[in-house]
Amino acid sequence: MTVETGRLPAEGVQRMFDRIAPVYDAMNRVMTVGLDQRWRKATVRATVRSGDHVLDACCGTGDLARAAWAGGAGHVIGIDFSERMLERARRKVPELEWRQADLLALPFEDASFDSAVVGFGIRNVENLEGGIRELRRVLRPGGRLGILEITTPRGPLAPFYRLWFDRVVPLLGRVLPGGSAYTYLPASVRRFPGPEELATLLGSCGFEAVRFRLFAGGIVALHVGEAN
Ligand SMILES: C[S@@+](CC[C@H](N)C(=O)[O-])C[C@H]1O[C@@H](n2cnc3c(N)ncnc32)[C@H](O)[C@@H]1O
């Protein structure tokens, strides 16, 4: 199954995150009313085992890598193609390894990681299936992948969610310096597959025991699978 999620080409996404970098952490805290760090910790608990060699793909400013490190990972490498986002990660957690790289062409050997996490990043990758297959390639058999991502709720929260993402978030983006690119966020969420579809895609890309849980009334999904 091929699911193309991006209408912005990769260079457009890279430039957008270079521009967003100065306000990214503040926007995260505001948009999620501070819950994002809790979801990152849950992702680490479900994915990373003590002493693991961990990849944080699309690491951005490094919060998920930092949570993996705090959660007992042995070694953590964060990769991202936005140099401005990486600069912030380096400043925030200098003891971890940070590299500029494209998720679609990871500069690592096959089976070189015990676990991999992606937080709010895979939605922006031009070729979703290609990205998942690349993550599978660098995981050892039995290694775990955790994907934390915004999703579209179906229940009673759906109208509130549309108001929040389609109106409030772009408005917040306009008042914060450099935040205008946040108008891209609602469109990228709408294009992204729902939780069941993403679970099926993971299964067809070499992961087994795939499960997911939803946070905040179904606004955010955490998928975990084991490389087969
Ligand atoms: C919304 S941020 C998420 C940052 C971080 N993972 C977090 O939990 O906050 C998405 C990140 O994905 C990166 N990204 C998008 N496509 C990428 C790709 N193909 N390769 C590497 N990084 C990519 C962007 O540069 C951006 O820093």
Descriptive notes:
With 228 residues, this protein is of the alpha/beta class. It has one domain: Vaccinia Virus protein VP39 (Rossmann fold), CATH 3.40.50. Helix content is 42%, strand content 22%. The protein has helices spanning 10-20, 24-31, 36-47, 63-70, 83-92, 128-138, 158-175, 184-191, 195-204, and strands at 53-57, 75-80, 97-100, 113-119, 139-150, 207-215, 220-227. A seven-stranded mixed β-sheet has the order 3-2-1-4-5-7-6, sandwiched between helices. Strand 4, helix 6 and strand 5 (139-150) form a beta-alpha-beta unit. Helix 3 packs across helix 4. The chain is globular, with a radius of gyration of 16 Å. Bound molecules: S-adenosylmethionine (SAM).
